[in-house]
């Protein structure tokens, strides 16, 4: 589980925000990112309270002359603000609960790594470092069979005619994921910001995502309201929105490739090669920033 995260930032811990840190948080052996974030927010909240008190003293001073007691309180408040402002190192929580070794082994089994379907398929098909089995005793699923099962996950009762449409939607999403992974980007889910993917230059622990990817079929028409809404959300968190337009085959063409009697690996390569990705970067035009 930890190796999937460390060697490419794949998946997320089911009991963590992203990196599987449940064991570290429970055992108290090291500071997790969640604990650091919580501590930082607490200190920021305390500093805001001190600043509000400081502003109240300033307002009172403009209205009237402060007495000696109030001046002393104000000076003490300034010292506290200076200490809080210069403190940049988060001190560990010394009151972390001690967890016994036997309990720790049981707690380790509670969290597991959750992969998106495109992440799982990329690990199996592109990197060939993972296997997917229906049960521990069965043989690993082949690439084509795995793709078929993944397509049926969203619609288990779909008919054969509906299956090709579902398969095309899945392949459309996967080819964009594969495209950016092959270019060296760390690709993460972007549902939090209203788009399909987020692109990190190195990974979530090092930098914020630079781009938000909105996957769209080349013949699909999005409304201006929808486009501007996503652009506002992505731009509000200082990311650049990229439209990934996917040129895809028709349902009939995709069905013909699927029905061929070729080797499963060859068939899958033909399916993927029938898709093409084109990119367009969206930026708001601001007169104050783009003067000639």
Automatic annotation (TrEMBL):
Q: Which GO terms describe its molecular function?
A: nucleic acid binding; tRNA-intron lyase activity
Q: Where is this region: Disordered?
A: 14-47
Query: Entry's SUPFAM superfamilies?
Result: tRNA-intron endonuclease catalytic domain-like
Q: Where is the active site?
A: 200, 208, 239
- Please state what class of enzyme this protein is: lyase
Q: What Enzyme Commission number(s) apply to this enzyme? A: 4.6.1.16
Q: Which domain of life is it from?
A: Eukaryota
Q: Which InterPro entries does the record associate with it?
A: tRNA_endonuc-like_dom_sf, tRNA_intron_Endo_cat-like_sf, tRNA_intron_Endonuc_cat-like, tRNA_splic, tRNA_splic_SEN2
- GO biological process: one example: tRNA-type intron splice site recognition and cleavage
- All copies of domain tRNA intron endonuclease catalytic, residue ranges: 171-248
Give the function comment from the record: Constitutes one of the two catalytic subunit of the tRNA-splicing endonuclease complex, a complex responsible for identification and cleavage of the splice sites in pre-tRNA. It cleaves pre-tRNA at the 5'- and 3'-splice sites to release the intron. The products are an intron and two tRNA half-molecules bearing 2',3'-cyclic phosphate and 5'-OH termini. There are no conserved sequences at the splice sites, but the intron is invariably located at the same site in the gene, placing the splice sites an invariant distance from the constant structural features of the tRNA body.
Q: Its quaternary structure? A: Heterotetramer composed of SEN2, SEN15, SEN34 and SEN54. Interacts directly with SEN54.
Q: Which family does it belong to?
A: Belongs to the tRNA-intron endonuclease family.
Protein's name according to its UniProt entry: tRNA-splicing endonuclease subunit Sen2
């Amino acid at each position: 589980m930890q190796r999937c995260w460390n060697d490419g930032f794949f998946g997320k811990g089911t009991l963590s925000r992203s990196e599987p840190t449940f064991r570290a948080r429970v055992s108290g052996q090291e500071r997790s990112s969640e604990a650091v974030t919580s501590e930082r927010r607490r200190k920021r909240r305390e500093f805001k309270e001190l600043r509000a008190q400081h502003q109240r003293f300033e307002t009172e001073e403009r209205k009237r002359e402060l007495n000696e007691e109030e001046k002393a309180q104000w000076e003490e408040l300034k010292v506290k603000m200076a200490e809080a402002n210069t403190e940049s190192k988060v001190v560990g929580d010394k009151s972390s609960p001690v967890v016994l070794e036997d309990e720790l082994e049981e707690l380790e089994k509670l969290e597991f790594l959750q992969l998106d379907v495109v992440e799982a398929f990329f690990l199996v098909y592109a990197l060939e470092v993972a296997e997917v089995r229906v049960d521990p005793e069965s043989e690993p699923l082949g690439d084509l069979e795995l793709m078929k099962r993944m397509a049926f996950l969203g619609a288990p009762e779909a008919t054969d005619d509906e299956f090709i449409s579902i398969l095309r939607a899945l392949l459309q999403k996967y080819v964009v994921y594969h495209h950016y992974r092959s270019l060296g980007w760390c690709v993460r889910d972007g549902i939090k910001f209203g788009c399909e993917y987020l692109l990190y230059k190195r990974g979530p622990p090092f930098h914020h995502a630079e781009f938000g990817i909105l996957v769209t079929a080349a013949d699909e028409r999005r409304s201006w309201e929808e486009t501007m809404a996503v652009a506002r959300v992505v731009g509000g968190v200082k990311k650049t929105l990229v439209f990934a337009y996917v040129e895809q085959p028709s349902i009939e063409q995709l069905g013909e490739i699927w029905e061929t009697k070729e080797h499963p690996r060859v068939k899958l390569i033909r399916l993927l090669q029938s898709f093409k990705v084109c990119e367009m970067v969206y930026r708001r035009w601001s007169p104050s920033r783009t003067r000639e």
